[in-house]
Design brief:
seven-stranded parallel β-sheet; 15 strands; single chain; 252 residues; alpha/beta
Length: 252
Amino acid sequence: MLAAERRDHLLGLLAREGKVVAKEVSAQLGISEDSVRRDLRDLAAEGLCQRVYGGALPASPAVVDYAARQSVAPDGKRKVAAAAAALVRPGSTLILDGGTTALAVAHALPRDLVCTVITHSPTIAAALLDHPQAELFLIGGRVFKHSAVTCGAAAVEAVQNVSADLCLLGVTGVHPEAGLTTADADEAAMKRALAARAADTYILASSEKIGTASRFRVLPWEKVSGLITDADPHDTVVEQLRAHGVEILAAD
């Protein structure tokens, strides 16, 4: 089989089955596992898969820069944001992550809502300046420009001194096996710190993130209260998550 044919076969497996197991492909095609791994390395270099032990998973499309991400699945993000905003109760304290879906949540919060919002995103804080009843706390630290958020040791330390009723957290990848992932190690650590300070943590994930993975794990499924997504309820990944006890909040 030619290299181009192997490439198409691997991409087809990722699309149909949501993963590639190098050992299985090697046996199916009668080629060495080294050849499969080389092909997967090439696909990963093009951003077409995320390599994991033993094979690969679909790569998340949500790893492009912040400006580009604003044009990715805007309708899905608005649906997820509306469902997430409905979880914020008057008088409660919310930890709101950064990113484009979280920004949509900020815009979806009622202007007259009485609440406290803790965020490490200057963009989120600015979006809530015209909410007169919302008290804002901005966590400082090194600015990670890719997601327009602060992270690093100073930001993680500052988060240890707050508590909240609810955390709404964004990720780039949502996968039954890989868990909840993102593309930067410091950002993953910051997300874990945020989630640890809230009574409940819900994941914001528009449908293009479902079934994909990035390099760094944020949280395992048992550490979150549920997933908010506009993905089809009968999507194979969504059904797998539900079967494993993950609460799925449908964003219609």
